[in-house]
Design goal:
Tetracycline Repressor, domain 2
Length: 153
């Protein structure tokens, strides 16, 4: 049973990574580095939230059998680009540092803050009191959350 749950969890996280990669692929590779870095972080969050909304069962399964953070780097949980959802988020945050948007001293642990915010909203939308929001309201709340994460980092 544990092995099966682990396999389902890994497949669901890989699907989540692919969704996040899909949003990242929409970010134009032009413009100033700071704007691109911000757009990449927003794309990561958008992909995460859209996946949760569109695939709530898979989203729940993605986190059903994770023992600890070491699982977040498992190659079995990676998308087509070879990174897991957690690694995709970390890369976007590293991009903010490289572009001069996020001060280097504020980078350690930033993935936990961004992940917690996005995951909390996702769970409220699919299983909590926000599940009754219509798609437009849910999208607007998601946008505001991503604004808050970016400004708060």
């Amino acid at each position: 049973r544990r092995a099966l749950l682990g396999a389902v969890c890994s497949a669901a996280q890989a699907a989540l990574a692919v969704a996040m990669e899909g949003e990242l692929a929409k970010v134009p590779n032009r413009g100033d580095p700071a704007t691109r870095a911000r757009a990449r972080l927003r794309a990561v969050g958008t992909g995460y939230l859209r996946f949760a909304w569109a695939e709530p069962g898979l989203f729940r399964a993605a986190f059903s059998a994770s023992e600890d953070l070491r699982d977040a780097a498992s190659p079995a949980r990676a998308g087509e680009g070879g990174l897991t959802p957690f690694q995709i988020l970390a890369a976007a945050l590293d991009g903010l540092v490289e572009a001069g948007v996020l001060p280097r001293e504020r980078r350690p642990g930033a993935e936990f803050l961004a992940w917690s915010a996005a995951h909390g909203l996702a769970m409220l939308l699919i299983d909590g009191p926000l599940r009754g929001l219509d798609p437009v309201q849910a999208r607007d709340v998601g946008r505001r959350l991503l604004d808050m994460v970016e400004q708060g980092l």
